[in-house]
Design brief:
It is a single chain. The protein is of the alpha/beta class. The protein has twelve helices and five strands. It has a five-stranded parallel sheet with strand order 1-2-3-4-5, covered by helices on one side. α7 packs parallel to α8. Bound molecules: iron/sulfur cluster.
């Protein structure tokens, strides 16, 4: 599990190493067709700032080579804003006395129909807060069952699940899962997520491993970037992608 590997990666050393990268390190990385993790550190570093345009051109080149000139759009649909967590950056946190809704299957289907009336969308992302007691796996399975009538690609962005639960949802027609590991710094993570199931760093961090074990076809891994202390987390996503092939599969 990645949380075990993470114990061997020092946040402080990673931060210092990224900050110490030089112009030469960046040029060396840009000249390679296959970068290693040190090269990625160089490209994330302050020394890479003068090369943003160069990196953007390379990014476009590799993107077009792999995906062609395509653009994929999806519709995010919140089917509940009910949540048992207390993330400090989110208005849905449980202490906020706002109206909460858990859409019924009939209401969910009405939303699907309304979306299809807008345009021939095929990709839907079902989003929830985290309320496994009232909007857990059976609820998600029902929403996916109905979605199959309207969409060919169904993804979820919900609470991390067990490998068995991910597996069950793929049997219902789930194509992909998106999840944010907001930061890979455990101390920062605890500050942002003080209560509820989301406060369990390892459970969330290892959710991607469980998706892999379950054979989820498409896995979207997010971190919150832009913050002063977010760069090492971006690096951790890179390390994690490098180790993805070692994940065993649940059958
Ligand atoms: S789990 Fe999601 S919906 Fe709930 S408070 Fe955190 S960010 Fe908001």
């Amino acid at each position: 599990m990645f949380s075990d590997e993470l114990k061997n990666i020092s946040w402080e050393e990673t931060t210092e190493k990224i900050a110490s990268m030089t112009d030469n390190d960046v040029r060396r990385a840009l000249a390679k067709s296959h970068c290693d993790v040190d090269d990625f550190m160089a490209l994330l570093s302050p020394a890479a700032e003068p090369y943003l345009e160069t990196m953007a051109r390379l990014s476009r080149k590799y993107t077009e080579e792999r995906f062609g000139k395509t653009m994929s759009m999806f519709i995010p649909l919140y089917i509940t804003n009910s949540c048992s967590n207390s993330c400090v950056y989110c208005g849905f946190h449980r202490e906020n006395p706002m109206a909460r809704t858990i859409l019924t299957p009939e209401q969910i289907e009405d939303e699907y129909k309304a979306i299809k009336e807008l345009a021939p969308f095929e990709n839907i992302l079902l989003v929830t807060g985290e309320n496994p007691a009232k909007a857990g796996v059976p609820y998600l399975a029902k929403a996916i069952d109905i979605a199959k009538k309207y969409f060919s690609n169904i993804k979820i962005e919900v609470m991390p699940l067990s490998a068995e639960d991910y597996k069950e949802l793929t049997h219902h027609g789930l194509n992909g899962v998106i999840c944010f590991q907001e930061t890979y710094n455990k101390e920062h993570y605890q500050n942002y997520h003080p209560r509820g199931m989301k406060s369990k760093f390892e459970w969330r961090c290892d959710g991607f491993d469980r998706m892999g074990q379950a054979g989820v076809h498409s896995i979207g891994m997010g971190v919150l970037i832009g913050g002063r202390r977010s760069t090492p987390s971006t690096f951790h996503v890179c390390v994690r992608l490098r180790t993805r092939d070692s994940t065993p599969t649940v059958t």
